[in-house]
Amino acid sequence: MPRSRNLVASRRRRRKIINQAKGYWGKRKNVYTIAKNAVEKGLLYQYRDRKTRKRNFRRLWITRINAAARQNGTTYAKLIHGLKENEIDINRKMLADLAVHDPETFTEIVKAAES
What we know:
Helix content is about 75%, strand content about 0%. The protein has a single domain, classed as c-terminal domain of poly(a) binding protein. Helix 2 crosses helix 4 and helix 3 crosses helix 5 (about 105-115). The mean pLDDT is about 95. The protein is built from five helices and no strands. It is rod-shaped and about 85 Å long. The protein is an all-alpha fold.
């Protein structure tokens, strides 16, 4: 019995990697073995940076809240402590958004946290 090779499936597997490498520079986009390494590395970066993006946004929100809190005569740490003490449940993303787009409401929240 002759040896059977599944050329359709192996070509499809290689084509999938080459398609994922679209836009890469040089041989990374059209030589399978090089493209495979580049795509795998890219997928690792993608996985890692999904986690990093969350950290970066939290840092940005905290920076914005701190800047707005200092304009209102307090600090970030005192504001967050006051919010917890007064059982005001608002997350940092919303606080940062209020600090940037609605300073009057943010000032009211600061006053409520201080009382």
